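ugh ok fine here u go
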Amino acid sequence: MIELKTHLKFNPKFGRLIEITENGAKVVLETTDDMAVDDEGLVHGGFTFGAADFCAMASVNEPYVVLVKANNCEFMAPVKVGDTVEFTGEILMKEKRKVEVKVTGILNEIKVFEGLFSCVVLEKHVLKK
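structure:
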């Protein structure tokens, strides 16, 4: 089993890691009432994006990986309170310090999110001088 090496304090409330492989990861987002933006229970897209971002970071799984660009992110269907979205990250390209990860979010066999995440692996923490 591969251990998570990055984003170790990421709150599982916003995306729970369920698998890491050599070429990707899986994260589950279980939506709750405090993610809703209205009385209908529509979940704010920021929670969907945040879980997808975490999935990309876990896919790279290097201690000092950062997101530098999110490309072609599409929210294809609404997510509502009580839904469970499974995100799958797949590394498409690794070139020195640059890594491209495709993340797909599935809810009940329906694609609700897809995006390409451009990541960079740093030698030290981004906030360290």
